[in-house]
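Quick start: what a row looks like.
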Amino acid sequence: MAPPERPGSALGAAAGLVAVLVVVTAAVLVYLEDPDPATPASMGDVKALEENFRLQNKSCFILGGSGETGQLLLQEVLGRRLFSRVTLIGRRPLSLQEPESGELVQEVVDFEKLEEFAAAFQGHDVGYCCLGTTKAKAGADGFVRVDHDYVLKAAELAKAGGCQQFHLESSRGANKDSSFLYLRVKGQVEADVGALGFDRFSVYRPGVLLVDRAESRPGEWLSRKVLGALRAMAPTSMAIPIQTVGRAMVTNTLLQPGAKTEILENNDISRLGAEGGGP
């Protein structure tokens, strides 16, 4: 009869398996790196760009400010004081930890009747959209309604209200022809908002968002930990700290794009976030 396996042997085997998985994952990530990412314009003197932008007395609105990216985007916008007025549009008012600055306004809307709240979208130069949910939370129909229908209707109202720039958080791999619902919806809303003809339409396609969620399944937690460890060793197009996304969206607003529509992949977002003063 074989002796029982000692706990140390089991732990060693598990550690070995994890090491193999990390190596294999790293190899896959290298293979899947963005082949030809767009290169954002050079930042130059960030402080000078910010000061010049402030002198233009622009206003903005933020959709999805209660979400993970949206919260950090709002902090970035208020902290850098780039806009004379910031409007937070959502289904409920947010209780902010920091004292609200004088330029912040909150508008409560019903997304099912968004056309009745057109006034909330009027008079803004720049719009940021981090609105979204998941199929697990809202079901397939609810996911489409939030990530496509709400976003598109908001963009239409913003365009009609005079908004010139629309910055949309999307996802790596977004493709309106994808067989996967999530990527197909993300790709379709990119195409539909792009067809509205904003003076500038910027799409951000981050990879896995590295953030500790309040609600997180074990598989999601493990994937973020592995990708986070790999990113610490070398940049990867598969993952990005969530703070970097919000910072990059605001930093990119300071730049003059080469085209009316720009798609920024994960590596582009990482560079913009770093040039804007982050990791």
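That is the whole record. Strands lie at 59-63, 85-90, 104-108, 126-129, 165-169, 200-205, 208-210, 239-241, 261-265. The first helix runs from residue 7 to 31.
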